[in-house]
Here is the input.
Amino acid sequence: MSTLDELSPDEYRARYETLKAKGQGKSFADQAEGALAPASMAENLIIHTETIPGGWYWATEIPRGQTLRILNSGGTGAVSAVLWNADDISERYNAGDTVKIQWTAKLGKGRVLLSDMGRALASITDDTCGAHDAIAGCSTPFSNQRKYGQAGLRNSRDNFRLAAAKFGMGVKDVPPVMTFFAGVGTDDAGGLVWQPGATKQGDYVDLRAEMNLIVALSNCPHPLDPSPDYAPQPVEAIVWQSPPPGPDDLCRTATDEAVRAFENTDPLFNSGRAI
Here is the structure.
């Protein structure tokens, strides 16, 4: 078998197209549909439940193997998230690599949130919504002023700065975010547009921690949401003890890129200690 350095340009292109088709194609969608049915989240599996009021944030540590369920109990327009490696906070969620390496900005069930070191931070093991935004970013003081004509409204950028400070981090440690329950799509010209009705009250997404994490969530309206009212509703964050992944776990096996991410991640823990 030829090494990558020995491939011709045509062979490189063929390999690229094969990987892209696998990452984007119908085969992945077929695997994700109905797969990874979560274990019943019985009361005895719930470790902690937190209500995040509209406009506010919450940050916590989640050990590898536990799952965070973000429940859109109030039908709010967006919940933004940032993840850090709790054992080395210099490693954190990387939006660019998460989208690029998995060949899609449409992140949902079966996809993985990647770090800036090519490792798996969390897996999306269940998702009733399918409308999430990995590109447009979160609200800022400027975006709130422009949308609502009012200063002083809480925003996600400042929320994440406050959350980071609680763990000894500063502004430079807050990367571009992932936003759940955000109906962001594209128009014919490739511009980002809001898709009304893409989310509903009661939707949830499950994030299984693939390493020891610091997770911060911010419950503020998305900057592209055209609603003239600043009225985010409460959401629930539920940490629960999910079952361990099996050898055929979709998030770990669906794409070559995911396999490599876990090959980079698991050795940190298989040695009996986190690095």
